[in-house]
Amino acid sequence: MKIISQISQQLTGIVTISLSLSLCLCLCLTSLSLSAATELRIGLSGEVTSLDPHHLASQPNLTVARHVFESLVDVDTQNRLIPGLALSWRAIDPHTWEFKLRKGVAFHDGSPFTAQDAEFSLQRPLQLKSPSGGFAAYVRAIASIRIIDTHTLQIKTKSPYGALPEDLNSILIVSKKHAVNANTDDFDSGRAMVGTGPYQFVRYQRGDRLELSRFLGWWGNPPAHDKVTLRIVPSDPSRTAGLLAAELDMIEHVPSADIKKLSKNNQLKVIQATSWRTILLHLDQYRSPSPYITDLNGSLLSKNPLQDKRVRQALSLAINRLAITERIMEGLGMPAINFVSPPSFGYQTILKPETFDPSAAKQLLTEAGYPNGFQLTLSGPNNRYINDDQILQAVAQFWTRVGVRTTVEALPMSTLLNKVRKEETTITLLGWGSFAADLSIRSLIATTNSEKGYGAWNWGRYSNSKVDQLMTTALSTIDRTKREALAREASILAIQDVAIIPLHHQVVSWGMRSGLSYTPRTDEFTLAQHVSIR
Amino acid sequence: MFNDEQHYLLKLYRDRVARRSGLMLLLLLALALAAPIYTPQNPYDLAQLNLLDAKLPPLHHSPDGAIYWLGTDDQGRDMLSALCYGLRTSLGVGLITTLLSLSLGLLAGLVAAYSGNYIDSMLMRLVDLQLAFPAILIALILLALVGQGIDKVIIALVIVQWAYYARTVRSAALTEMRKDYITAAICAGYSPMRIVLIHILPNIIPTLLVVASAQIAQAIALEATLSFLGLGLPITAPSLGLLIANGYTYMLSGTYWISLFPGVVLLITIFIINITGDRISALLNPRLQ
Amino acid sequence: MLRSPILIRISHSIITLFAMSIAVFLGVYALGNPVDLLINPQANQIERAQMITQLGIDQSLWVQYQRFLSAALHGNWGTSFVSNTSAWSLIIERLPATVELALCAMCIAIIIGLPLGLIAGLHPSRWYSRLIMNGSILGFSLPTFWVGLMLIMMFSVWLGWLPSSGRGTTTNTLGIPLSITTIDGLMHLILPAINLALFKLSLLVRLTQSSTTLAMLEDYVRYARAKGLTERTIIFKHVLPNIAPPIITIIGLELGGLIAFAIVTESVFSWPGMGKLLIESINMLDRPVIVAYLMMIVSLFIAINLIVDTVLIMINPRLRKQAPSLQSSLA
After folding, report:
1. Pick the residue with more confidence: C11 or A498?
2. What is the pTM of this model?
3. Which domains does chain A have, with CATH numbers?
């Protein structure tokens, strides 16, 4: 018996050793080529500046934060509101919204989620002593918050405000216990990274990666992957190369140049959806003469031609949007006429995107008194939106061909914004993402009014009192059907007047191993909890 | 001195490698200068471009009978034309930058070495100050302040590069001055000006040329890097570097020609510049005679 | 008065540092207003104004500089606008990655470049010397970002041998996170280090070669040969010490340059170093980080210069006294 047990022990030892050796070998090999089945490595395209979910309202920061934290109101892949930490919400009266919170939700430390946490999180953006990046904008409508019971919250707004649920989607709920005195550093170190979300904080290396593990106590369906590493890879070719070299399982924002190649690779696949971001042109309409519009000899035009609706229409007609979306965007764009993208609230379908018609454009220019055209500069960023500098060149090409000699000025976003502030641009490219048409009209098209906060991004200072009025009414309408109708009406009015020239809605794309699946999201977020294994 | 100069030129002419590389360099210059005459398209004129011709592969026949020998880029720009214009821009930027920064650096370096004391230390502190700034950053801040453009890029590059010459010239001159023949010259009562011009200057030319041949290449590469970072030349008037940067996004996707051809031309250009510089420095070195 | 040349150089360095703080501050603050980049697009003008006040950029330039200087003298380099954490700690966090990369690149350049240059300089007419010299010219002829992409294409995408981006696993060595201590980290380090080294390598080869060629023609080599010394003794005892000073100067200068130029390599390989931080900060106009980074680079560089100068003074006896200038010897 003794001998047998000894032999068996020895055997077990040998087996263990050989097993562990082969396991080591396997691990070494897999770490070089393929990852373990339940680990997901995602390549993100933007710089994450902070893990504090209330510090800076940027897409990369929110992407990361949405793995750990959740908001009261969630949105689905089509940008429509769905229950998040709040099960339901309704307007009790024009000034008051009531939110019923989800029961049985736990934070990562095990403590239960209550109305206290929600109240604290909604107040935190305004209390932050640090230079807040402006989450305050999403809670500015709130006058007071009342806790009815542990899972009911009543929010009073300063004036009737229908877009509160949309706004609250951007406010993530933190644990009051952990975040009450926490500053940004506490979030970055992980101390305050206690949320209710599907993933828990493990390790953060700034500028490189965030490691997460599955939170077993999450209320939703457990996500497919135990471990998630969010790698920060802003360089486009590096992201593609990482996916091709199997260092990454999934990447967001596939560079348009690589779409075809990745689609052809049968180990990989590319998925796409229309994004909420619309690329558009602002036209200087507030000064005459416009200081940078000249005739073909370079002398200043005495009148600003962009104030003439026919000229704006001509410029819009002269652009071959289909050529841009197909040739430059490689399909990552969809010709636009609206200020919000198709699935969004308030998208109108009566007016279709302008068809390319250079002769009609020339005709309109002649009617407006510019048969020989004129010269202007088209400005825009060169590092912000998909292929932005190429789009600028293409638009310039089209305009030059109908006689409007266009010089392109593609600048880093920081330089561009300063030029815009100094009013040194004439026509400027901007990308805009919004939940709802009335919200985007408020920022882009409404008459600039600093007190009300209207037209903050209305660079061309288009002004139309009818549009303003419709937009204001829409925003204060609680009934969503009525509100949507009003928003559509305002949009149509502004579109017909060529307030701005929409070019296309961006199409957002993800590349991944063919064994994975992800439903593409309009809001462009890359969320590991929704990545499943086929 | 001038006789010596002629002698060097003769020597250069007699050297096979120097003659060939010099001729090739002249050929490149001629190609670059004459670009507007022989290229099928003016790549800077937006009205001549057609987006529908974008990303055509090399040797593509367009419907109107033209052949895109090297294909087209993402804007439908004929790559051959863009290359020739780009070569012009790149060589122009490199040559002008080198000429300006070399003169500036030579002057500063000689003044520093010659005068010594506080002028020397002040100039050298300025050089330190200059070199303490990352080249890319000076350029970046300058370009952010003044905007894009060839002239601005050149100014930025000169500001980046003059200090290298100044430092090299000064240290080479100081090394020379410690040598015995200078002491002899001083004892013979020659004027300082004469000593600097006749004895020191010829002896530091090889060192200077080694640096210059590297710096001219670096100027072109740096301009490309600035363009890569989105700060150099405007996209509508590309240099070789900008063409590479433009094609950079397409490298992994099989649309290789946008980045490959400018890369090859840039490589050849800088290689020829460097080979020529190399031979010149080997031949002009008085000690090797 | 200060007599020692080393002390004089130290005092010069301090003055330079101070002058640079002004230049850097003015340069960066002339760049523009970061608010529009930082602000939530949905924010209104009132929130914008509040933010400007909170960031302290509504004050005059002079007031801002005074605040900056007095804080800096207390060791506080400001708070990053975008990360809301100390600018200095952001940089220190990224420092090891960049220094590791730059040092590795410099080591590669020295280990390969110096011997190659020496060989080419000692036997200038041999075929392998020509190969070395032409190879070094090729090394010059490629822009860093292009080489970086080629390396990624070749070794990551086609061959699949090495990772294309990031820093890999790091371990804390003496409290400093290093990649070089783990295999995974080393694999991540190879490509960026080679990419960064290539240019300096070519420079070193050429520099060593031209110095060696010149040195071999010097009189002392002839005398040494006449004395019957072995070639090995001549190289190690006579040639190397004589060509060392300019090479040390260049290595020193280029190390500063390497750290600065790592910007491009770090961008291409997504290496989480200071250069990448700088590009991000410039894109976001995160002034405190830009200023702190620049001041750190400036300090680092001044320190490198000081060390190079000191070493030169110590190894070259003739420089130990104040360097003789032409004028003073004429007097």
Report:
1. A498
2. 0.81
3. 49-189 (3.90.76.10), 276-505 (3.10.105.10)
C168: pLDDT strictly greater than 80: no
Q: Tell whether B288 lies on the interface with A, counting CB pairs under 8 A.
A: no
Q: Is A244 on the interface with B (CB under 8 A)?
A: yes
Which of C289, C322, C325 is the best mutation test for B, with the most CBs of B within 10 A? C325
Nearest-Cα distance to chain B for C207, in Å, is 8
B252 in contact with A, Cβ within 8 Å? yes
What is the radius of gyration, based on Cα positions, of chain C?
A: 24
Cβ–Cβ of A397/B148 closer than 8 Å? no
CA B39 to each of CA B33, B65, B269, C106: distance values in angstroms, whole numbers, following the listed order: 11, 15, 19, 44
Q: Which residues of A touch B76 (CB under 8 A)?
A: 397
- Please judge whether B224 and C143 are an interchain contact, meaning their C-beta atoms are less than 8 angstroms apart: yes
Encode chain B in three state secondary structure: CHHHHHHHHHHHHHCHHHHHHHHHHHHHHHHHHCHHHHCCCCCCCHHHCCHHHCCCCCCEECCCCCEECCCECCCCCEHHHHHHHHHHHHHHHHHHHHHHHHHHHHHHHHHHHHHCHHHHHHHHHHHHHHHHCCHHHHHHHHHHHHCCCHHHHHHHHHHHHHHHHHHHHHHHHHHHHCCHHHHHHHHCCCCHHHHHHHHHHHHHHHHHHHHHHHHHHHHHHHHHHHHHCCCCCCCCCCCHHHHHHHHHCCHHHCCCHHHHHHHHHHHHHHHHHHHHHHHHHHHHCHHHC
Q: Cβ neighbours of residue A12 under 8 Å, at least 6 residues apart? A: none
Mean pLDDT score across all residues of chain A: 88
- The partner residue sitting opposite A133, judged by closest CB among C39, C44, C153, is C39
Distance of CA A223 to the CA centre of its chain: 23
CA dist A437 and A485 (Å) reads 10
Q: What is the pLDDT of residues B206-244, one digit of tens each?
A: 677 767 877 887 788 788 778 776 677 877 777 887 888
At A155-208, the pLDDT tens digits run 999 989 888 999 999 999 999 999 998 888 899 999 999 999 999 999 998 878
CATH class of B30-288: mainly alpha
β-pairing, A152-157 vs A199-205, is unpaired
**Which residues in chain B have their CB less than 8 angstroms from residue C157's CB?**
252
The answer to whether C205 faces chain B, any CB pair under 8 Å, is no
The interface predicted TM-score of the complex, written ipTM, equals 0.77
Radius of gyration of chain A (CA): 27
| Subunit contact B287:C141, Cβ cutoff 8 A | no
List pLDDT tens digits, range B18-59: 888 889 989 998 988 888 888 888 888 887 888 888 888 888
Cross-chain Cβ contact A412/B250 below 8 Å: no
Q: Which residue has the tokens 């240059």?
A: C117
In terms of CA atoms, which chain A residue is nearest residue C283? Answer: A414
Chain B residues whose beta carbon lies within 8 Å of the beta carbon of residue A408 = 46, 234-236
A vs B, Cβ pairs < 8 A, gives 80
Q: How far apart are CA A110 and CA A102, in angstroms?
A: 16
